[in-house]
Structure formats: C-alpha cells, structure tokens
Amino acid sequence: MAEVVSDPRRRVVQEGLIAKSLTAVAKAIQWILLSLLFSIIVEWAGMVLWWPDEGIEHSRTMLTTEISYLESDFKRSVVTSDPAQFAKRFADNTYHYLFEVTRFVDFIHWVSPPPMANEQGLRTTLHKIYRPIAEFVIAMMQVTQLFSVRLAILTLAMPVFLLFSLVALVDGLVQRDLRRWGGGRESSFVYHYAKKAALPLVVITWVVYLALPFSLHPTFVVLPFAIIFALTVTITASSFKKYL
C-alpha cells in the first residue's frame, strides 16, 4: 500500500476566541430571528384556525398580559431597577427602529384609506392587495412588540441561571471530591454529555418562551429550565476528571 505523504503546506486552521464569539453571537441572532418568524406564523395560523373571533385582539391581549406580569411580579432586577419600564422601552425601541425608521408605518397609513372614486395608480392597486391582509400585518407588528417584551423578560431572568449554576457548581465539586476520596467510579462519558447539554438548555429556554402562542407567566418557563440547567452543571462538575 502506498504511503500517504502529508502536504507540509496544509495547515490546520483553528478558530480563535474572537471567531468563536462572533460565531456564537451569529447563531444566537439566527435562533432569535427564527423564533420571531415562528411566532408570527403561529399567530397567523391561530387567527385563521384557533381564535378567528379574537383576530388581532389576541396578540394585543397577550402584549398587555406580558407587561402586567412585569408590573406585578418583577419589581426589581439585577439588570435594572425598573424591569417593567425596561421591557416597555425595549419594545418601543424595537417598534421604532423596525417600523417607524423604515417608514413601514407611514406606508401602512398611506395604503390603508380607501381610494377616491376616480383615483387610479399604484395606491389603488396596493390597497386592493393590503385590505384582505390588513389584520395579519397589524398582528405581525403586535407580535413583534410582544416578542421584544419577552426578550427583555428573558434578559432580566438570566441572572437566575447564573445563580443556579454557581450553587450547582459548588455542589458538584463537593460531590467530586467525596467521590475521589471514597474511591468512586469516574466516567468521562457522563461528563462529556452533561457538558454538551448545558448550553442547549439555555437556547431551548429562549426559543420556547419566545415562540409561545399564548401568555404564560415566565416563572413557569424559566424556573424549570434553570433547575435542569443547574442539574447538568452539577453532573458536569461532579464527573469532571483531570485526565479525560
């Protein structure tokens, strides 16, 4: 068999810290945009199939409910002193930059009024196209605001994951020392799979809560995932080996 001669000009290119960070940010933005798109599609499907009587009021009610959760249950946060105002400002800024700066709102106001009796031209054609989908467009704008509020809520809830992970890390390291001194069995298999499961749990938390087609108190989403995340950190720390 002929020997394979390696080409000395070929080099293994490894990603640096900056490249990995940019890749992680790009993936996070990708998942956020996919969650927004999925939320809009589900809302549109619901307006046709599940809540046709509510129409655009469904997304408007969800937006009001999500803000009420902040006003009633989130009085303080590590991130900001006024969580409700932080979420409202975040949603207003999102609306401003996505729909006002881009002149999308002006376009809606221009195309919405019925054309005059003898009016002809582009606006008449666009009005005929816009009129059947007017509620879907407004629902899309409201869902985007709702999405922004939920994004702010998740940002405010991230210290919970940090706190749970610190406690879980200490507990896992204590279990690791007890196992080592007691001559317990070590398993790199458990360590690797527990480590790989930690970050996806955070991503799943964001995707699930952002894409919910109904209002749900964020505690019922964030807390269970934070507990599972802490459990994976505990398992990772307790099964860590110096030589893997």
Walk me through what this model shows:
With 244 residues, this protein is mostly helical. It has one domain. 72% of the residues lie in helices and 0% in strands. It is built from 8 helices and no strands. Helix 1 crosses helix 7 and helix 2 packs antiparallel against helix 3. The chain is elongated, with a radius of gyration of 25 Å. The two termini are 34 Å apart. The N terminus is likely disordered.
Task: Describe the SSE topology.
Blueprint: H1 17-49, H2 57-73, H3 83-100, H4 104-111, H5 122-130, H6 134-181, H7 188-210, H8 219-238
Helix pairs in contact: 1-6, 1-7, 2-3, 2-6, 3-6, 6-7, 6-8, 7-8
Features:
244 residues, mainly alpha, 8 helices, 72% helix, disordered N terminus
Write a short abstract of this structure:
This protein is mostly helical and 244 residues long. 72% of the residues lie in helices and 0% in strands. Helix 2 crosses helix 6 (134-181).
